[in-house]
Amino acid sequence: MQNAMMSTFGKVYFVGAGPGDPDLLTVRAVQCLESADVVVYGCRIHTQTLSFARNDAELIPLTPPYESAARILAAHAATGKTVVRLMEGDPSVFGHLHGEIGELCRQKIPFDIVPGVTMISGAVRAAGVSLTRMDRSRAVAFVICSFVYEKGLDAAEFDFERLGSFFGTVVLYGGITNAEHWSYAMIKGGMAYSTPVLIVRRSDSPAVLPERKIVRTTLSEIKHAAEENEADDSCIVIIGKVTDYGETAEGLLFDENEESEWLDRR
To answer: Is 266 contained in some domain?
Structure first.
């Protein structure tokens, strides 16, 4: 009886849309979009990414905080439809995947996860740096900084001062508006005032966010640099010695104004 019931359901694909640039979609992501009956997507998804969907596919936009996403996915899959849930970056990294999968599990609706290029990978690409180097950084710490402040977590739950003694590269998602607090704590924890920092606007796609911008500063000056450049919590912050080489590489990796040859050929 249970197998018969599951056979009437469609399937939900949680698809990573990457950091914004449609060129960075995986082949599997494109295949899922081309076969979907319904595409559910957030506000940061590039319009050209949606162009891979079928002409007759139903496109359903979501607005933060995406609380209705799980209900929408389950409702459409329950009618036998193939549903794609497009998520920026990689679905399993700092996203809403856990909550949305939970609803599908409760209703026994099958699903699959299609990895994508993470937002931080997009930021690294834009800045022309490497997060690790054998002689400078052999570890990386990723922190959802904005979540720490939104939820009011205290030092016992997340200790920025302890992060100051971390021996590798530190990457912060959001939280730039609270830079004065966490930069002071990290310096107090032992990180040097002069530690280089990059502030990178999250998107690799001017079509959905303001033009890409990279700000170079130091840990002690990050608050002022963020204010002067009107940085907000859509930015990614990369802290550590590996960022020293970005200034040399920037501009050599790709031409920001160059049209995507791949998309033009479609």
So the answer is: no
CA quadruple 246, 250, 253, 257: dihedral, nearest 10: 150
> What letter would DSSP give residue 121?
H
* Ramachandran assignment for 70, one of left (phi > 0), alpha (psi -120 to 50 degrees), beta (any other): alpha
* Residue whose C-alpha is closest to residue 16's, from 98, 120, 86, 73: 86
> For residue 28, is it within any domain?
yes
- Of 63, 98, 117, which residue sits at a domain end? 117
- Full residue range of the structural domain in which residue 26 is found: 8-117
Q: Pick the last residue of a domain from 117, 144, 160.
A: 117
How distant is the alpha carbon of residue 63 from its chain centre?
A: 16
Q: pLDDT 10s digit of each residue in the chain, 266 long?
A: 344 445 589 999 999 999 888 889 999 999 999 999 999 999 889 899 999 999 999 999 998 878 899 999 999 999 999 999 999 999 999 888 998 999 999 999 999 999 999 999 988 888 888 899 888 888 999 998 765 555 554 444 578 999 999 999 999 988 888 899 899 999 999 999 999 999 997 655 544 445 568 899 999 999 999 999 988 888 899 999 998 765 555 555 545 444 444 444 44
d(C-alpha 149, C-alpha 95), whole Å: 17
The label of the residue with tokens 């904005």 reads 146
Residue 55 lies in a domain: yes
Number of domains in the chain: 2
Question: For the chain, how far is it from start to end, CA to CA, in angstroms?
Answer: 45
